[in-house]
Write a structure and sequence with these properties.
It is built from seven helices and eleven strands. Strand 9 and strand 10 form a beta hairpin. The structure holds zinc ion.
Length: 307
C-alpha cells in the first residue's frame, strides 16, 4: 500500500524537475527554440519503466530558417529506468525508447543547400557559452542565440545573477559580458545581455506582481502611523519566485520602539504577495554633518550682514 501511494505521489514530486530538465537539456543543446505545453510523468504507463509524455512539442528554427517549424508533435513518449529520475543537475539521463504520435516534420533546404534540420549547436556557440559562464558574477546562462551575418556574429544571451546584488552591479556584470566577449571573440561584433535575477526560461513567476507605485500606496496605507514617509519611500522591493520581500532602512532611533518589526510584518503580511520584511537600522551620521554645514553658512551669513 505504501509503495502504491509512493508511486502515485512521485509524478507530482518529479513533474516540475522533469519539465525543467527537459526544457534545459533541449534548449541548451540545440540552436533552435523548443517549446512544449506540458510534461506528464507516469510510473504505471510503461511499468516497470518511467514514462514521460511531452504534450505539443514544437521545434522552431533560428536563422537562416528564422521562425520555421521544423517539427510539431502532438504527443511524444519517452521511457527510462526509474533510477534515471534521481540523477542530479547536469548528469545525462539514459533514455530507452522514444515515440511520437501526431507528428509533422517539415524539412526544407535553402539555396545554399543547407537543411533546416541542422540544429546542432555550432562549436563556436558552445565555446561562447562556456566563456560566459566563467565571467565573475554569472551564475548561469540561458537562451544563448548567435546569428552570423557576413562574417560577424551577433550574440544574445540571458545571464542569471545573484538576486540580492544591486541593479548597478547587475548592469556592470552585463557590461563585462559584452566587453569580454567582444575582446575575446574577434567575430563577435554585437552583444545583447539580458540580466535575470531568476530563471525565466520556462515561466515568469513575477510577471503579474504590482509595481512600485502600487506597493508604496499599500505600504503608506498600512504603515503611515508607524514610520516616517521617507522610510517608506526608500524601501527596496525584491521580486522573486512570484512573491515580494521588502528591505526597509530605518534610523537607529526607531529601534527603541517595542515590537516594531513584528507589527510591521504582521500588518503587511495580510497582502498575499508580500512574504517578508527585513529591517536594517542605520545611524544618522548625515544629520550631524548637515548641522555643521548649516551652522557654518549661518555664521557666514550673519558675518556678511554685520559687515
Ligand atoms: Zn531569461
Amino acid at each position: 500500500m505504501v509503495t502504491v501511494i509512493a508511486l502515485a505521489a512521485a509524478p507530482f514530486l518529479f513533474k516540475d524537475k522533469i519539465k525543467e530538465m527537459i526544457a534545459k537539456t533541449l534548449n541548451e543543446n540545440v540552436n533552435a527554440n523548443i517549446a512544449f505545453e506540458d510534461v506528464d510523468l507516469s510510473l504505471f504507463k510503461s511499468f516497470p519503466k518511467a514514462n514521460v509524455t511531452i504534450d505539443k512539442l514544437s521545434i522552431i528554427t533560428n536563422a537562416p530558417f528564422e521562425k520555421d517549424t521544423l517539427l510539431y508533435a502532438g504527443e511524444t513518449n519517452v521511457t527510462m529506468s526509474i533510477k534515471e529520475l534521481f540523477k542530479g543537475e547536469g548528469e545525462a539521463m539514459n533514455l530507452e525508447s522514444f515515440s511520437v504520435v501526431n507528428g509533422i516534420v517539415n524539412i526544407i533546404f535553402n539555396k545554399d543547400g543547407i537543411g533546416n534540420f541542422d540544429i546542432a549547436l555550432k562549436e563556436e556557440t558552445e565555446k561562447i557559452k562556456l566563456f560566459i559562464k566563467e565571467i565573475p558574477g554569472v551564475k548561469a546562462i540561458h537562451q544563448l542565440r548567435t546569428r552570423s551575418i557576413a562574417g560577424s556574429i551577433f550574440c544574445d544571451v540571458h545571464v542569471l545573477v545573484d538576486p540580492s546584488i544591486s541593479v548597478s552591479e547587475g548592469h556592470y556584470i552585463g557590461q563585462e559580458v559584452d566587453k569580454r566577449l567582444i575582446e575575446s571573440f574577434p567575430d563577435i561584433t554585437d552583444v545583447t545581455v539580458h540580466i535575470d535575477t531568476e530563471d525565466d526560461e520556462l515561466i515568469n513567476p513575477s510577471y503579474n506582481l504590482p509595481d512600485r507605485n502600487t506597493l508604496q500606496k499599500i505600504l503608506q496605507k498600512h504603515w503611515h502611523d508607524l514610520l516616517p514617509e521617507t522610510a517608506i519611500k526608500t524601501v527596496v522591493f525584491h521580486y522573486l519566485d512570484g512573491k515580494i520581500t521588502i528591505d526597509l532602512k530605518l534610523p537607529l532611533v526607531l529601534s527603541n520602539q517595542v515590537d516594531l518589526e513584528a507589527r510591521l510584518k504582521k500588518i503587511v503580511e495580510r497582502e498575499k504577495f508580500i512574504t517578508d520584511v527585513k529591517i536594517f537600522y542605520y545611524k544618522f551620521v548625515f544629520y550631524f554633518y548637515s548641522f555643521i554645514y548649516i551652522l557654518f553658512f549661518y555664521i557666514l551669513f550673519v558675518f556678511l550682514v554685520i559687515c
